[in-house]
């Protein structure tokens, strides 16, 4: 059974899950780099505009000072693809993975607006950005879970719940704190790396 190992070390995994939950306030909920704007633009454009034309997304980020990196205007607001659209070197995978969190944010924003709260339902306001950032943190944690499952399959379980739990915790903490994953879960979550870690961990486990 895929998640049988979770039942053999409930305390260990309960502690790790609790640690993840209490760490969520440490997630940085902002978009400030051009790569982040590219990945986010896929989701916002598909959700609100039903297209992959990123002109308005890039202009929003530029005009609001969220992506003032040198060359941003030239790269994203002057250059065009052969089809006349703006360049985007990101991929759509993050948008697909983030979409459930974005959907919750969209519903929440519209409920708040019905209650008279002044929240913009434009896909750019803080709830939408926060949803994407927390989504990356979630997928980063799931990458840790899947990595522990892979390690258990490779190393084998000794049948002792306590020892198995300690092994799982060691694997999770080694990957969580010993790799750049912690940075991309908490400092720069709108990058693609936390989502990529989840996808790679899922592939390795299936393989």
Summarize the structure.
By secondary structure, this protein is mainly alpha-helical.
Write up this protein.
The protein is an all-alpha fold and 207 residues long. It is globular, with a radius of gyration of 20 Å. It contains 10 helices and no strands. It has helices at residues 4-7, 10-23, 34-49, 55-63, 72-77, 93-114, 126-155, 161-178, 181-186, 193-206. The model has no long low-confidence stretch (mean pLDDT 88).
Summarize this structure as a short list of keywords or feature phrases.
mainly alpha; 207 residues
Which geometry do the CA atoms define? globular
Total beta strand runs: 0
Class computed from helices, strands and strand pairing: mainly alpha
Q: What is the helical fraction, as a range of percent? A: 55-70%
- Tell me the strand percentage band: under 5%
Element-by-element helix/strand order: HHHHHHHHHH
| Distance between the first and last residues' Cα | 16 Å
Which residue ranges are poorly predicted, with pLDDT under 50 across at least 5 consecutive positions?
Answer: none
Count up the helices: 10
Largest sheet: none
Averaged pLDDT? 88
Gyration radius (Cα, Å) is 20 Å
